[in-house]
Amino acid sequence: MRKNQSAPALSLAEHKAAILRENRRVTSYDVALVAGVSQSAVSRCFKPGASVSKATYARVMKAAAALDYIPNAAARSLITRRTNMVAVVISNTANLCYPEALSELSQQFGRRGKRVLLFTLQREGDIGAVLNDVWQYQVDGVVAAAAVTDELVAEFERRRVPLVVFNRCLRGQAVNTVACDPYEAGHMLAGKLALAGHRSVAIIDGPEDNIVSSERRRGAADKLAELGLSQPVVVRGHFDYASGARGLRDIISRLGHVPDAVICGSDVMAIGCLDYARHELGLSVPAQLSVAGFDAVEPSNWLSYNLTTLRQPLQKMAAAAAELLDRLIETGEGEVEKRMFSSQFIEGSTARLTALPSVSLAA
Question: What are the structural domains, with CATH classification, of the chain?
Answer without folding.
Answer: 12-71 (1.10.260.40), 82-181+314-343 (3.40.50.2300), 182-311 (3.40.50.2300)
